[in-house]
Amino acid sequence: DYVYICQNETVYGTRYTHLPETGDIPLVSDVSSMFLSEPVDVSKYGLIYGGVQKNVGPAGVVIVIVRDDLIREDVLPFTPTIMRYKTQADAGSLSNTPPAYGIYVCGLVFKWLKEQGGLEAIQKRNQEKAALLYGYLDQSKLFSGTAQKEFRSLMNVPFVTGDADLDAKFIAEAKTRGLESLKGHRSVGGMRASIYNAMPREGVEALVAFMEEFEKNNA
Ligand SMILES: Cc1ncc(COP(=O)(O)O)c(C=O)c1O
Hints:
By secondary structure, this protein is of the alpha/beta class. It folds into two domains: 3-115, Type I PLP-dependent aspartate aminotransferase-like (Major domain) (Aspartate Aminotransferase, domain 2); 118-217, Aspartate Aminotransferase, domain 1. The protein contains five helices and nine strands. It has helices at residues 85-90, 100-115, 118-139, 164-176, 201-217, and strands spanning 3-6, 8-9, 14-15, 27-30, 47-51, 62-66, 144-145, 156-160, 191-194. The chain is elongated. Pyridoxal-5'-phosphate (PLP) is lined by residues 6, 10, 30, 32-33, 51.
C-alpha cells in the first residue's frame, strides 16, 4: 500500500541519498532527524512526517505534509482522533488544543532559517560541517567512521576508536572540554556527533581540534 523509509537514521548515521522510485505507490518518509536541513521536493512523497525536536523546535510538535488524496475518511476504526488526517485537515490542524508555545518556537526557527539564507544556505553549511568531520575521520589513524561512505548522514556522525575503553576515555575527556553528548546510541556504543542545524561550524571545528589532540596523546 505504501513504501516507508526513515530518510535519516540517527543510530547508524545513515541517510537515503536518493529516494526510492516507487511509481504509483505512495512514499512515506520519517524525516524527524533531517527536516529543514536541506531543501525538499514534497511532490515526490505521499506523506512526510517528523517530530520537530531535531532541527525545528521543542519536542511535542509533529509536522505532517500529506498529499490531498491520502487524506481519507476510511481509516482503521481504532485510529485515534488526533491521528486522523481528515479530522486534522478539516479543523486546520486545530482539532485539539495545540501546543501553542512549541509552535511559536518553531515559528521563530522558521524566521531564523530565512535570515540564514533559507534551506539552500543551510544545506551548504550542513554539508561543510559534515565534510570537516568526515574529512578528519577518513585520514585519522585512531578514529574511524562506522557508516558506509556512500550513505553517510549529514546530521549524525558515528565513529569509534575500535577499543571500548578508549572510547569511554574520549567521551569523558571531551566532556571536560564542553563537548557534550558524544556517546553513541546504547545499541551500538562508540561515539556519535549530532550536528543538526543549531550546531555552528565552530562546534564541529572544536570537536575536530580535540580529536586531533586526543589522537596525538593516545597514539
Ligand atoms: C528519524 C527518527 N524518527 C523517530 C524518532 C523518535 O522520535 P520520538 O522520540 O519523538 O519518538 C527519532 C529521534 O529520536 C528519529 O531520529
